[in-house]
Design brief:
Length: 109
């Protein structure tokens, strides 16, 4: 599982989300909290899916991870619109999430 590229990218995004969470001002702290929870859900569900014995059961966890990645993308977009994320960090986050979503989409099939 730890050799899975999608897992590695998910952990990389988790680290980035922790950094982003520190930039959120108090009035929007709920966005940082939700980003951290959703970002953590991605590698946890990938790990759980990798540990399942049937393809259908694994695909269910990969789909949950994919949904969490989509949720993270929406939060990152919101933080960018609210001027809490700079353009460079936004691009990096979106690139990582697009890659994660693409890999998870293939794993869900």
């Amino acid at each position: 599982m730890q050799r899975m590229d999608v897992y590695q990218r998910a952990v990389e995004f988790l680290a980035l989300s922790a950094e982003l969470g520190t930039r959120v001002p108090k009035g929007h702290g709920y966005l940082g909290d939700q980003l951290r929870r959703a970002a953590l859900s991605i590698p946890l569900n990938i790990a759980e899916g990798a540990g399942r014995t049937t393809r259908m059961d694994a695909a269910k966890h990969y789909a949950i991870a994919r949904g969490s990645a989509m949720e993270c993308a929406a939060i990152v977009d919101g933080l960018t619109v609210l001027a809490h994320v700079d353009a460079t960090t936004h691009v990096r986050a979106v690139e990582l999430l697009e890659r994660i979503v693409a890999m998870l989409t293939k794993l869900c099939r």
